[in-house]
Amino acid sequence: MFYNRPRTIIYVLSLLTFVFSVNAFGQRVALKTNALYWGALTPNLGAEFRLSRHYTLNVEAAANPFTISGNRLHAAAFTPEVRYWFSARPHARHFVGVMALGATYDLIFSDKHYEGDALGGGLTYGYSFVLSRRLSLETTFGVGALHYRGQKYGTGETAPDDINQKKTILAPLKAGVTLTYILK
Questions:
Q1: Residues in Cβ contact with 131 at an 8 Å cutoff, skipping those fewer than 6 apart
Q2: Res. 21: pLDDT tops 60
């Protein structure tokens, strides 16, 4: 990476989320993984902590360390989210959420190199289908503002000294078909 700021942001977000979720460990906890990310060769893992009858804290991390057919897909993302469940039972039926996103990327596609970081935040909606007492299948979609900055250059060229791409856009921030296992 051309600078360590993205990693620092992701570490700080992870630490803050952990600190705020410590009181949730006595409550219901669920482990989860997003099948859509696995389909994109991006290993991921998440945990969701029940905060009250209607609120949960969902945290997910994903990383892609692969290079396939000359295309580099290196990226890492962290997404904390606070969810409101319309039913009095989290992990069942409709929910809405407020999410944040921190990511870092180093990609090579079609002889172009993209390297940088992204921060975002937005709203999510989802539905959780209860499959059994401990297992559910969740669908999620989220949109919001995404600010990215980085460097774009040809693969045979030297990386520029400064950032040459910076933009804030409205974008889809989350999509998921997630398998959830409730531990407690």
A1: 137
A2: no
